[in-house]
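Let us practice reading a record.
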Amino acid sequence: MNKPRVRFAPSPTGYLHIGGARTALFNWLWARKTGGTFVLRIEDTDQERSTEASTKVIIDSMRWLGLDWQEPMVTQSGRIPLYRAALARLHAAGLIFSCSRSRRDVLAAASAPHDGEENDEPLYPPEFRPAAGAPLPPLTDPIAVNWRFRVPDGETLVFRDGQCGEQRATAGRDYGDFLVWRKDDAPSYQLACVVDDAAMGITEVVRGADLIKSTFRQLLLFRALGFTPPAFYHCPLVTDEAGVRLAKRHDALSLRTLREQNRTPDQLRTTWASE
């Protein structure tokens, strides 16, 4: 069997959060244990929020923690042609549609549930879809409208997670038509992640449990693009004493703050490795 290839894929929009650092450590430890490869991918397609300074902080924090990667670091901003080619394949297959609706429009629709998942896409109302088989407008350059993947309503996808066990979700009920390209001419997280994991030969994706629902969307894209999906392992989220998830935006949870509190890499690695 081929040796595992795992990755850590942070967005450079601020300091490295302890949840992200812990996920990086889990990936690194697994690669070392199995003789596999650990790679670093910077997901910097959000040009408004991504900064070179944050990328440098992430790299510095990982090196301070004692983590290294076996291949040159990859940045998504340098791989836009790959994502655009994948978008063109989805367009040619009639699997996407253009969308002028805003997130506010979607949230205001009567059919959209309000479940409090602030980091997840709201369920796209089916009445906003163009009719199946309707002619698609061409892909422009640059792209100035949103493009969404049309999910197969009623299909239940199932995958077995290495940590959380069997996971099920039904398209059109648990998640809806999702973004693959944004009107600011940037690929969505879902599309860029799938294209990169396939192109980089990632065999196992280790990440936070808040991304389980994203996995179903990504499985649809793996299938649509003819890629073999990796295995998935979703880590428990970092929570407070009451079990409430700790948000990334809290600066007290950055690795920088822990360093300023004189916590050592060995202390953190020992604590997280035992979880």
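A brief commentary: The first strand starts at residue 5 and ends at 8.
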